[in-house]
Design brief:
Elements (H helix, E strand, L loop, with lengths): L4 E4 L5 H12 L15 E2 L5 H9 L3 E8 L9 E11 L2 E9 L8 H16 L4 E7 L3 H9 L3 E8 L9 E2 L5 E8 L1
Parallel strand pairs: 5-6
Antiparallel strand pairs: 1-3, 2-8, 3-4, 4-5, 6-9, 7-9
Length: about 180
């Protein structure tokens, strides 16, 4: 298994994070992995200003998984990221992205474990929640294998807000998944 180091993202990482997240979900590059939303959405997956706000707010971290650099003064190669935050007394997990050519290598599982550790051990929150487009059956199955359950709670997709993409269909919505930690 490839060496992987976790750290908190900084504002200096914003451009690289936007590139990583976009490559994992949108456009032809995303088709190299299995998390692509290219058939569902065009445009942005994450807005740089929203990301900067996530980095600045309390109890909100963007975890970065990187291949450690041989030079201790330099950041390593960015391989994966995820946003964790406290929302309404629970952990929230989102913006989960692994470089498309590395999906299926175990990096995502390790990053999800680290996010759960932060929420459970550091923030001492009882549950982790996330929202997933409810027609993404393969992605939902991935989370179910890791202990997440479908709650039957749905949230609307932000149609018309291009900071989060341009839907190619009008029936998109999110379902809340949850795991007791």
């Amino acid at each position: 298994m490839a060496p992987l180091r976790f750290r908190d993202a900084t504002p200096a990482d914003v451009d690289a994070l936007v590139t990583l997240v976009t490559s994992a979900y949108r456009g032809d590059a995303s088709r190299a992995g299995w998390t692509t939303e290219a058939d569902l959405l065009d445009g942005n997956r994450i807005d740089p200003e929203v990301l900067r706000q996530d980095l600045a707010r309390p109890r909100s971290r963007v975890l970065v998984g990187e291949r450690p650099s041989t030079d201790p003064e330099q950041a390593g190669e960015l391989l994966a990221c995820a946003h964790v935050a406290e929302e309404d007394g629970a952990g929230y997990f989102g913006m989960f992205s692994v470089r498309p050519d590395l999906q299926g290598s175990g990096i995502g599982k390790r990053l999800l474990d680290e996010a759960e550790r932060v929420v459970r051990d550091e923030w001492q929150l009882p549950t982790m929640q996330m929202t997933v487009i409810d027609i993404r059956d393969e992605l939902i199955a991935f989370y179910e294998r890791r202990g997440y359950v479908r709650t039957g709670i749905y949230k609307p997709f932000p149609h018309g807000d291009e900071r989060f993409g341009r839907p190619k269909r009008d029936d998109l919505r999110f379902e809340v998944l949850e795991k007791r930690l």
